[in-house]
Design a protein that fits this description.
Structural class: alpha/beta
Number of strands: 12
Distance between the termini: 57 Å
Radius of gyration: 21 Å
CATH topology of the largest domain: Aspartate Aminotransferase, domain 2
CATH superfamily of the largest domain: Type I PLP-dependent aspartate aminotransferase-like (Major domain)
Helix content: 25-40%
Strand order of the largest sheet: 1-7-6-5-4-2-3
CATH architecture of the largest domain: 3-Layer(aba) Sandwich
Largest sheet: 7 strands, mixed
Bound molecules: pyridoxal-5'-phosphate
Length: 385
């Protein structure tokens, strides 16, 4: 569906990846459970060019999801992974090997940092963390063996916006690949390939799935990175089940319309919280007062429902009373589902310290009524007074 490039995300999400003609007219591709795929005859087995060859390598369930995600991303090829972290590991292994140097943003998702510091290190990949606000200044960190620059914008927990195009220009000048964890914005609000990214990573567990019931991820590649992604995926044996691909694709169909509501409620909560006496500051790039606002406005088409709040310093018991008094905000990891969430943020930095005296919490604005959510925050924050 290459002529669909000009279509808007809502239209792509509705139509992409459908194979109704091969499924008796059913709108959705059914769940395929398959390990063995039978060949018609010896000739087709020997040619090895049938659409499907072995369950691990893909089924109509995975390709429907991959094709839809790929059209939304505007990539050359998208490959599903068993989780968002699995997608991150796949993308890095597609471009880096022993003796290579990786530049990793200091505000990365914490398990990404553990991947670098433990497993990648053991395989001879050296990581240097860089200030998320470095922009073109990344030049001074480039080494002869720098193979990849990894971005995440806005950063996990701290929400700093990165100048991805400036970083990409420098990386490409030095022959390095640009990887982006684009989970916050999704391809609907940030087009990775238009901003110089080579491998765009999505923890589809979050907004794509959208219902807190599936662990899944994907990596989208541009043409120059397609083969590297395909061979790394093949060799690592990564697989996502037909059921999980089905759920992810079902979520993707409604993601653009859900994001409108997440954005609206997130902003409403952020504005309200910014004025609350218990709050030091709100970390949300769509707020005009946010240090990342100008870059966000330049590069992003919208904001989703996840943001941070720096609280004024309070004793732990009062903080606990606030958290435990919330009725509509669940306390739990992950985000991007239909339900509102809150968690305390544990910030790990090594290159550029993050300045916050009080506790930082992360809020996900779900699809509830925003005024109900504000009323809940209001009664709980009263416990801090
Ligand atoms: C949750 C998350 C991931 C990891 O996704 P999983 O599916 O939980 O493995 C990666 N990046 C970011 C920014 C995330 O929030």
């Amino acid at each position: 569906m290459s002529d669909d490039k000009k279509l808007k995300p809502e239209t792509i999400a509705t139509h992409a990846g459908r194979m109704s003609d091969t499924h008796f007219g059913a709108v959705n591709t059914p769940v395929y459970r398959a390990s063995t795929i039978l060949y018609r005859d010896l000739a087709s087995l020997e040619a090895g060019n049938t659409a499907y060859r072995y369950g691990r390598l893909g089924t109509p369930s995975s390709s429907s999801f991959e094709d839809a995600a790929n059209e939304l991303e505007g990539g050359a090829r998208t490959i599903v992974a068993p989780s968002g972290l699995g997608a991150i590991a796949l993308a890095i292994q597609a471009v880096c090997g022993a003796g290579d140097h990786l530049l990793m943003v200091d505000s990365c998702y914490h398990p990404t940092r553990l991947l670098c510091d433990r497993t990648l290190k053991r395989f001879g990949i050296e990581t240097t963390y860089y200030d998320p606000l470095i922009g073109a200044g990344i030049e001074k960190l480039m080494k002869l063996n720098t193979r990849a620059v990894f971005c995440e914008s806005p950063g996990s927990l701290t929400f700093e916006v990165q100048d991805v195009p400036a970083i990409a220009a420098v990386a490409h000048k030095h022959g390095a690949s640009v990887l982006l964890d684009n989970t916050w914005a999704t391809p609907v609000y940030f087009n990775a390939f238009d901003h110089g990214v080579d491998l765009s990573i999505q923890a589809a567990t979050k907004y794509v799935g959208g219902h807190a019931d599936v662990m899944i991820g994907y990596v989208a590649a541009n043409e120059s990175h397609r083969e590297r992604l395909e061979s790394a995926h093949h060799d690592l044996g990564l697989y996502a089940s037909g059921d999980d691909c089905y759920l992810a694709l079902r979520g993707l169909r409604t993601m653009p319309v859900r994001l409108v509501r997440h954005q609206e409620s997130g902003l409403k909560l952020a504005h309200w919280l910014a004025k609350h006496p218990a709050v030091e500051r709100v970390l949300h790039p769509a707020l005009e007062t946010d240090p990342g606002h100008a870059l966000w406005k330049r590069d992003f088409k919208g904001a989703t429902g996840l943001f941070g709040v720096v609280m004024k310093d309070t004793p732990h018991s009062r903080f606990a009373a606030f958290m435990d008094s919330l009725k509509l905000f669940g306390m739990g990891y992950s985000w991007g589902g239909y339900e509102s969430l809150i968690v305390p943020s544990k910030i790990h930095r090594s290159a550029a310290p993050f300045d916050a005296k009080g506790r930082v919490v992360r809020i996900h604005a779900g699809l509830e009524d925003a005024d109900d959510l504000i009323a809940d925050l209001d009664q709980a924050l009263a416990k801090l007074a």
